[in-house]
Amino acid sequence: MAERETASSVPPKCGPYISSVTSRSMNLVIRGVVLFLIGVFLALVLNLLQIQRNVTLFPPDVIASIFSSAWWVPPCCGTASAVIGLLYPCIDRHLGEPHKFKREWSSVMRCVAVFVGINHASAKVDFDNNIQLSLTLAALSIGLWWTFDRSRSGFGLGVGIAFLATLVTQLLVYNGVYQYTSPDFLYVRSWLPCIFFAGGITMGNIGRQLAMYECKVIAEKSHQE
């Protein structure tokens, strides 16, 4: 009788499947939040460079932050960064091709530094015309993919992200949300897809690294159990 009372007083433990699902869901949320914050920070810094060089112009009534950026730009970039960062490792698992090329944080930080440098070059370096600048940034962006990614899925996702992001930007500029100075590719600059491509590769690398860290933590917990 005493044994029954003792057994009933002990809370039942969750099964391994439920525990695993809960852990993965929490880790997914944490990764999404981290990617969102990284995207917001990069948007504030990089958009500041573009505005200082008068590459992008916002109407005076939407300038509403200490970084002289429209309030909606950082949240939109943060959301896109979270989606991209979570999508890359998901596609890798779906294709059965885990990305193992240069999987360490030092490589990821170098990738971020190169991406910031490419964006900085688009705003600071003066070329004779936009075509030369576009070709240079295209070469640098492909070089970033080759140096830090080299996966077919990464390249394909980068191209898709560049296409969709450029299309959305064209629509925003067309509707007067903001504008580019000296547009040469419909309503935007011709080098903009290169920036989006490099940004997709960069956030994908960060997302993959965070996912790999999650797998290590889960593996260690299962080994301890």
UniProtKB/TrEMBL annotation:
One Gene Ontology molecular-function label: lipid binding
Segments traversing the membrane: 28-49, 69-88, 131-148, 155-174, 186-206
Top-rank lineage group of the source organism: Eukaryota
Bilayer topology term: Multi-pass membrane protein
GO cellular component, one term: SREBP-SCAP-Insig complex
A Pfam cross-reference name: INSIG
Compartments it resides in: Endoplasmic reticulum membrane
InterPro entries documented for this protein: INSIG_fam
Keywords, comma-separated and alphabetical: Cholesterol metabolism, Endoplasmic reticulum, Lipid metabolism, Lipid-binding, Membrane, Steroid metabolism, Sterol metabolism, Transmembrane, Transmembrane helix
Single GO biological process annotation from the record: SREBP signaling pathway
Similarity field: Belongs to the INSIG family.
Self-association and partners: Interacts with SCAP; interaction is direct and only takes place in the presence of sterols; it prevents interaction between SCAP and the coat protein complex II (COPII). Associates with the SCAP-SREBP complex (composed of SCAP and SREBF1/SREBP1 or SREBF2/SREBP2); association is mediated via its interaction with SCAP and only takes place in the presence of sterols. Interacts with RNF139. Interacts with RNF145.
Function of the protein: Mediates feedback control of cholesterol synthesis.
Protein name per its UniProtKB record: Insulin-induced gene protein
